[in-house]
Every structure is written in structure tokens, then in C-alpha cells.
Acyl-CoA thioesterase
Amino acid sequence: MSDSRPVKRAEEMVNWNIVFPNQANPSGNMFGGDVLAIMDTTAAMAAKRFSETQVSTVTVEAVHFAKPIMVGDNIKTTAKVVLVGNTSMMVKTDVYRDIGGNKLMKCVSAFLNFVAFDYQRMPTQVPILELLEEDETAHKMALTIKESAKRRQQELNEILA
Ligand SMILES: CC(C)(COP(=O)(O)OP(=O)(O)OC[C@H]1O[C@@H](n2cnc3c(N)ncnc32)[C@H](O)[C@@H]1OP(=O)(O)O)[C@@H](O)C(=O)NCCC(=O)NCCS
């Protein structure tokens, strides 16, 4: 059966924030929940821009807090749709701290799943992703994450049955 959905390129969303003292955890670096809120918002904007619909986060996968972010840091967050299903999109999201000298250090990364909604809040189809060469690695990672999340869910369902 042929797929009549439009084919579309994804646009990278980028935003910058400065880390305030009220975003610190008791150790003095940025609280992970606040980092995740910025990632979720930026990723939602990328998914919304791609699908031209309302979107909701359905899962957050492969979160890795690799390096701490400090109070006072300028942080850059990037987000791009790298895999689509029928009504869902996976967005790769990364957070970097500005370490001066025009250099960035990657601190946090994650893949967030979004579902596109119509105006009755029913899942609705998203465009087909035109995959660019520069996104092939992220796309492969997203496929692996999606497959392993599916396996994990099946195993959890067996435990719960
Ligand atoms: C998102 C939501 C509508 C999905 O409900 P559902 O009954 O599973 O809907 P569907 O079965 O129609 O699935 C819709 C899409 O979500 C995907 N999906 C559902 N559960 C998923 C999961 N755990 N992981 C990844 N994708 C998932 C499905 O694969 C499907 O994608 P596809 O069309 O590309 O194949 C529902 O879980 C919801 O409303 N959640 C709350 C979302 C929210 O409020 N988020 C804000 C943060 S709290």
C-alpha cells in the first residue's frame, strides 16, 4: 500500500539559557529535572515544527547526564526529529555548556518520543522524514532505542501478566 504522506526535512531547534542559582541541586550544579524541562520544551518545539500539530511527550529514552552543568553557565540545547512512525516522532536532544573560546562541551543527551495530535486530541499522522546524511547516525541510534524500548516493554508486560 502506498503512503500518501508528504515528505519533509526536519529543522534543528536551538535555544540558549543561563543557569540561575534556583536551578541548582544540593551539590551546587544544575538540577537534572530542570535540564530535562528545557530538553522537553526544545524537543516539543522541534516535533511541533515538523508535524505542524500539537504534540505530547510520550516517553523519554536514553537520558545520559554525562557531565555536570554549573550555575552561571550559558547552555545551548539542540533538538531535531530523527525518526518518525505513523503518528509518533523521536527527537534527539543535546545540552552543551559554553566553556569559552567558542567551545561547547556536551553534557546531557536524550531521545524523546512525541505523539502528534489533531484538534480532538487524537493521534494524527506525521509527515515522512527526509533523512539527511548528517542525521544518519542519530537515526540509527533512534531505531536501536525504539527496538530496545519495545523489547523492554514486552518483558515488563510479561512480568506484570
Ligand atoms: C500519547 C498517548 C495519546 C498515546 O496513547 P496510545 O493509546 O498508546 O495511542 P496509540 O496506540 O494511538 O499510539 C500513538 C503513538 O504513540 C506511540 N506510543 C504509544 N506508547 C508509546 C511508548 N510507550 N513508547 C513509544 N511510543 C509509544 C505508538 O507507537 C503510536 O506511534 P505510531 O503511530 O508512530 O506507531 C497517551 O499515552 C497519552 O495521552 N499520554 C499522556 C501524554 C502527556 O500528557 N504527556 C505530557 C507529559 S506528562
Q: What stands out?
A: The domain at 7-160 is CATH 3.10.129.10 (Thiol Ester Dehydrase; Chain A). The longest strand covers residues 103-117. The beta strands are 7-8, 13-18, 54-65, 74-84, 88-100, 103-117, 128-129.
